[in-house]
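quick one
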Amino acid sequence: MFTDEKIPNNVDLARDVRLQRALEAWQPSFLSWWRETGPEGFPENDVYLRTATGVTAEGWAHYDFVRMAEYRWGIFLADPVPDRRIGFGDFLGQPVWQEVPGEHRTALRRLIVTQADTEPASVEQQRGLGRTCPSLYDLRNLFQVNVEEGRHLWAMVYLLHRFFGRDGREEAEELLARRSGHADRPRILGAFNEPIDDWLAFFLFTMLTDRDGKFQLLALAESGFDPLSRTTRFMLTEEAHHMFVGETGVGRVVQRSAELSRQGDVRALGGIDLPTIQKYLNLWYSISLDLFGGEVSTNAASFFGAGLKGRAKEEKFADHVAGEGVVTLELPEGGALVPQEVPVRSAMNEALRDAYVEDCQRGVDRWNRLLEGAGLSDRLRLPSRRFHRRQGAFAGLFFDPDGRPITEAEWARREDDWLPSAADRAFVKSLSPRAITRPGEMASWLAPPSKGIDGKPLDFEYVRLG
Ligand code: BYC
Ligand code: FE
Ligand code: FE
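structure w/ fe (iii) ion:
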């Protein structure tokens, strides 16, 4: 039996007995899923974690030592906007929905389930990383990300239980039954079935794949279904930290790589060379681009028309109906890239991808300033969006990182120059034979962060090992 105290919430859970029962029935399954597929090791350790205890701009985060299994996964919706109206699509200007409109039920459930599925998937993917953490600070950040992805699952399961009746409850069970990378019951989207076997992959995942999360959540925050909008708006405040972990994580690897390159061979000195970092970047960027779906998508067009999923920061666009007009996309046709006119609504995935690419570029620019500051002329860069795609118009075709079409034979010849090879992965793994858990100590291959968490010093015991 849980109470408001055990599950912090601002949805008046105590007063909705049916919902409370449904969530109570789901909670033990969640906890056994967490034990089975959540972070390996450290189950009894106190971790210095932030917990959401409200939604006000200041002070929603409460920091304290908690054991992860006792984390208070809460249910929070951002405050309602008075007289909120649907901001785009065919129902532009009508009051937002507080209940699910019957005709949009299937589409909405599908959007929510797809979003929900990524949250536990990422926890599963990151399960083993604690065993090779580069510092106690990083270990704590990993666990922070993990418990918050767990909370994001709770956020979506709340919507399924509260608004979708029996099939919502069934979907909530399924969310705990699928497994990342499983042959028969994999997670829904490609990126969430890829292994994250080392911390360089973790940092690129939180930089690039959590950033897909940011843009998908921004698009869902525009939704005419108000509970989804309010839930995702609050999730976005947590997402910022995940991307911070990724961007600064890669930045620290780049920094160390630059320092070591002035002393000699980076790998021999225990660092990760820039070409290897670039290959990891190529991999996780291309996998994450796939998460936006096809360049031309009737799904996206109908989500938009129905007012279910908008564009990131919809208010910045001039035309919120987008009922007519075309955009020109360069798409493959008969072995060449040909400019094609696509109805604006059918190109909504590409519009969201554009915003994402721009945001990624800003992060890469910051890494490059680190390289510049270290006096190096080498730079990192985002590959072409055509490179290594498995979804959308470029899937099944072959392009080099500049986006030039190549043959399959050339791809096979060059793949190991562009994506992490088995040897690269083995090398990165070899740098972390064990967890580094002495407070303040850092692995050889990354620079210390510029500051600690919540004003604590770098040598703070973020995870108590005693
Ligand atoms: N992998 O019309 P299309 C996050 C499927 S991340 C596998 O082009 P659509 C997080 C598609 O389902 C944010 N399948 O695509 C990050 C469709 O299947 P059906 C997650 C894919 O529907 C880190 C078919 O291909 N949130 O929060 O316009 C850690 C044709 O699709 C993929 C969301 O995704 C793929 N990559 O767009 C933790 C938001 N891409 O109908 C958390 C909700 C497409 O033929 N989801 N397909 O069976 C959506 O809005 C849409 O489902 C998508 C796809 C944007 C993902
Ligand atoms: Fe999340
Ligand atoms: Fe996240």
